[in-house]
Amino acid sequence: MSRKRMREEETSSAVPDSQTAPNHITPQPEIAMNSVRTMAPFSDDPVAVAIREKVDYSVRISFKQAKAGNAPRPVRVFADGIYDLFHQGHSRQLLQAKNLFANVYLIVGINGDAQTHSKKGRTVMTEDERFEAVRHCRYVDEIVRDSPWELDDEFLNYHKIDFVAHDDIPYVSDDSTDVYSLLKEKGMFAATERTEGVSTSDIVARIVRDYDVYVRRNLARGYSAKELNVSFLNEKKFRLQNKMDELKDKGKRVMENIGEKRIDMIQKWEEKSRDFIDTFLLLFGREGRLSHIWNEGKGRLMQALSPPSSPARNNDDDADEACPPPPKACRLEYSAGSSRSRSSGALSDDYSDDEIPTSGI
């Protein structure tokens, strides 16, 4: 039989001719409970009072009888705790308590702030926050606010509790080495197991360890330094760190985008590589355009810088031999009294200057 079916049978027997309560509305005495659809009522709510009054507590249920599933009524199991920062370890403990027996009505007692702060220490959540957190757990049928630190007979009888569920580790207090020792002696204790690796203390330790991270996150979300109890210098430091992390995140996103496009880039490179190589060889190869342009330019440059060559000496000698020197002027010979000498001159084949006449002129 499912837990929902058992819950319906239990509530129908306690409150006859009732209907299911709508969501987010505290159920009335004549309305049947269905914790899967509604929050668990507090112990002083009318529906919880009506269910408790219908219980015949004179009929006591033994542990053996409850385990065998032969209980004449739903077994009323009580689980208590502080339930600060309500987490999966708490939920698992309540789940175990709900499944201790075949038909369980689970009552959860939550310690108030006053006794918790005096006996164990400061909590993160207020008592009202802790009450509301637990009452929305689907395994819970009823909530007892400000539950006592140690359970006595008066409390057990008032709430008509058959068994108390808790882990079997001795829970030490100022007056006792184990607050559940009397219940164990009476046979009213049912052990559950703790969930390893998670607890409220572990969560608080994580917050303290990563204090800077959470402060920076809340500053980025708009919380003031005063609200976070952070000094002026620390606020500036944390805000600077936030800016640096923001820049790192932007850089990381850029690299991720590049990584996504890397495959496309490789494919495009393979497609264009052959054209790139051909173009490179065409320009820079031995017979490439660049080499041809360089050779032409180098030749023109050398031609422009080299002076014109002088004519050869052998050619000049030949020219002199080919062109004889011009003849000297003819010497005229005159004889005294000779008309012929005066009227005409005779050419002489003697070109020597030594034989030029010095007289007769």
TrEMBL record:
Transmembrane segment boundaries: none
Occurrences of domain Cytidyltransferase-like (ranges): 79-206
Keywords: Coiled coil, Lipid biosynthesis, Lipid metabolism, Nucleotidyltransferase, Phospholipid biosynthesis, Phospholipid metabolism, Transferase
Pathway(s) this gene product operates in, as recorded in its UniProt entry: Lipid metabolism; Phospholipid metabolism; phosphatidylcholine biosynthesis; phosphatidylcholine from phosphocholine: step 1/2
Lineage summary: Eukaryota, Metazoa, Ecdysozoa, Arthropoda, Hexapoda
Protein name, entry field: choline-phosphate cytidylyltransferase
One family name in Pfam for this protein: CTP_transf_like
PANTHER family: CHOLINE-PHOSPHATE CYTIDYLYLTRANSFERASE (PTHR10739:SF13), CYTIDYLYLTRANSFERASE (PTHR10739)
Biased composition annotated in UniProt, kind: Basic and acidic residues: 1-10
Gene3D superfamilies, per the entry: HUPs (3.40.50.620)
Biased composition (Acidic residues): 350-361
